[in-house]
Amino acid sequence: MIDPNAIRERILGTLPGSDVVVSDTTGTGDHFEARVVSPDFAGKSMVQQHQLVYAPLQDWLKSGELHALALKTYSPEQWKKLGSR
User: Fold this and answer.
1) pTM of this structure
2) Starting from the edge strand earliest in sequence, which strands make up the sheet with 19-24, in order?
3) Which CATH number fits domain 4-81: 3.40.190.10, 3.30.300.90, 3.10.310.10, 1.20.1070.10?
4) Burial of 33 (0-12, 13-18, 19+ CB in 10 A)
5) How far is it, in rounded angstroms, from Cα 80 to Cα 51?
6) 19 phi and psi, to 5 degrees?
7) pLDDT tens by residue, 23-56
């Protein structure tokens, strides 16, 4: 069972200065949703953004300990246009 804060800390380790919110979507500690707003995403495709987020989580994904992670990724400009919902 993974704590959402552990996921958040790993993402921040790779993307420092990002706004990261992680929630356990099922209460089972293996299905999560993450919203990541990072200046590192500027000019990158959604696929590239997701690759940056998944990179520090590969060991948990490969072991199955982290079964699912739904991502919503935004550059600060994209997030601002959405009204920071």
Assistant:
1) 0.92
2) 19-24, 31-37, 68-74
3) 3.30.300.90
4) middle
5) 22
6) -100, 115
7) 999 999 999 999 999 999 999 999 999 999 999 9
